Every structure is written in C-alpha cells, then in structure tokens.
Amino acid sequence: MSDNSCADVLVPLRNLSNAIKCIRERMKAQAAKATSQEATKLSVAFSKPPLPSKLDSARLAESIQKRLLALSTIYYWFPKSQGITLRKPIREATVQVLDGVVQLLDILLVSPLQSISQEQLMSTGGVWASCDQFDHLPKDNRAAVLDMVASYIAMVKDAREEMEQALSESQDPFSDVLDNDEIDARGNQDTYWSQTDRQLISKCMGLIKAAGACLRKFSNAVHKNGKVDTPENIAQLDDLADSSREISPSVDDLVLSLYPPVDYTAVDQIAGKLAFTLKKSLQIIRSCHFCLEADMSWVRFLEGAVDHNLQEVKLLSHGSS
Fold first, then answer.
1. Residue 301, Cα to own-chain centre: how many angstroms?
2. How many CB atoms lie within 10 A of CB 118?
3. pLDDT for residue 11
C-alpha cells in the first residue's frame, strides 16, 4: 500500500514534467518565429525611403535584440541532463540565426538605403530559413542520436563507394584529376595499384563494410529500444553517439591511405585505429539499455568480423612492408 501511495504522489510530478517539456518545445518555435518576424520588420524598414527615425531605428534594434536574447536563452538554459547530443543541434540552429541576423545588419549598414537589394532579400530569406529550422529540431535525445548516426552511415557509405568506384573505373585512380604529363612525372609506381595493393584494399574494404554494419545496427537498436525516461538512459545514448562520432573520420583516414603509393605501415596503423574505434563502440553498446539480450548475437558477430578483417590486413601489410 505504501508503494501504491508513493506512485500516486509521483503522478502529478510526472504530469508536470511532461507539461513543462511541451511548453519548452513551444517556446523554441515561438522564439524563432518572433525573431524571424523582427528580422522582416528590420529589413522592410530599411528597404525604401523614407528611412525610419532615429527613435524608430533604436526601437527596431532593441526589439530584435530581445528576441535574439530569448532565443539564445533557450539553448543556455536547456538542461544537459536532457542530452548532450540534443544540445548540439539546438546550439547550431541558434548560431545560424545569430549569424544570419549579423549578415543582414552588415548588408543594411553598407547598402545605399534607396531600394531593397538582391543581397538584402537573400539575407532576409536566410534568417527565415534559419528560424524555420527550429520547427524541425529533434524532439528528444533519442531522435538527436538517430539523426547523428544516420549522418555517419551516409558518410561511411560515401567513403566506401568512392573507393569501390576508384577500383572499378581504372588501373589509375588519379586519371580523372591528373593530366598525362603529371602522370608521367609521378611514374607508374606512384599512380597505379599493384596486385598486392588491391589484395590489401579488399581486406580494408571488409573493415569499412563492418563499420557501416555497426552503425546500421546501432541505429536499429536505438530506434527500437531507445528511451529517454531517465538520466541514465539519456546518458547511455550520449555515450553511443560519442563513440560513433569517431567511426566516420577513421574510415575516411583509411580510404585516403589506400591511394597510391600505398604505405603499408600507415595502412596497418590506420586500420588498427578504426578497428579499435569499432570495438570500443561495440563494447559500449553491450551495457546500454537499448541493446537487448537478443542483440548480443550481432554484437558478437561484428566483433568477430572486425577482428578477422584486421588480422587479414595485418597479414598482408606486414608481409609486404
């Protein structure tokens, strides 16, 4: 009975928390909309004669400053406990609005103030677009992490396809960026992949594909089971986002190292770094609430795939260095 009484007592607090979250979401949109409206007033006031009086100009400046301060306060007051990953797009959206208004002011300060210019129109439209972003921000940390991981999946896919295209199109991966004289100057050794190079690249591609598979599995797990009901669960989402953030740059580094002339020692080191990053992320997800017992099979499979591909890379790189 005591437990039931405790649960009943907490219901109003839970309802209040949900209500405040809804209010906060409305405030973000309203503050951005108000900033957009004030920027429009400012632009229109300085688009044609007669110019506003000194007093009206001061009022316009004060009004838009208040809107910008209100918008910035939303970010600064946004609790970190709601998610570090979620704070990032809010900060980026706020900075874009501030930059857009500064650009508009710079144009107004140097324009002849006779008629509205194309630059002024574009700058005003830029402020509108920046303010509109607030309607499309992630609603919670789970959504923010999903957006972030989706961007990493796309970047890893682009890097993989870049290398696949280079391998399939020509023996010389620089043929589309160098003229004949430059290729002759570099010599065949510097511009062509040897058969051993291609064998090494195929093993590295296995590691890159494993990176893409890891990110896709992370996304699926968060999508199906991710929760933001406790600070601990929110923090676990942030932990996965932090570890996943290192994967795409590591893939890019590996792809770049595979262009001729291939430095086998460098490839070995960079592949090892990527494998370490993947293993670290897989280890982190093991202890996250969104990784269920049924998910452990693919976690173990991917850990094995990373180890296997890294071992293959090392065998080739050490044997040819």
1. 27
2. 7
3. 76
Residue 193, SS3 per DSSP: coil
141, 85 Cβ separation under 8 angstroms = yes
Q: Does pLDDT of 151 surpass 80?
A: yes
DSSP state of 78: S
**Do residues 74 and 31 lie in contact, with contact meaning Cβ atoms separated by under 8 Å?**
yes
Of the pLDDT bands very low, low, confident and very high (cuts 50, 70, 90), residue 28 is confident
With 0-12 / 13-18 / 19 or more C-beta atoms within 10 angstroms meaning exposed / middle / buried, residue 52 is middle
- Name residue 274's amino acid: L
pLDDT recorded at residue 292: 97
* Rounded Cα–Cα distance for residues 60 and 56 (Å): 6
Tokens, residue 280? 């670290």
In this predicted structure, what is the pLDDT of residue 77?
85
The arithmetic mean of pLDDT across residues 11-19, rounded, is 70
Write out pLDDT tens, residues 60-70.
999 999 999 99
My answer on whether omega of the bond before 261 falls inside 30° of 0, hence cis, is yes
Cα-Cα-Cα-Cα dihedral of 149, 153, 158, 159, to 10°?
90
HSE value, Cβ hemisphere, 13 Å, CA-based, for 297: 1
Between helices 247-257 and 195-225, what is the axis angle to 10°? 170
CB-CB contact of 128 with 97 (8 Å): no
CA 306 from chain center: how many Å?
24
* Stated pTM of the model: 0.82
The 10 Å Cβ neighbour count of residue 162 is: 14
CA distance 257 to 160: 13
**73/34 Cα distance (integer angstroms):** 14
Helix axes 2-45, 54-77, angle to 10 degrees: 150
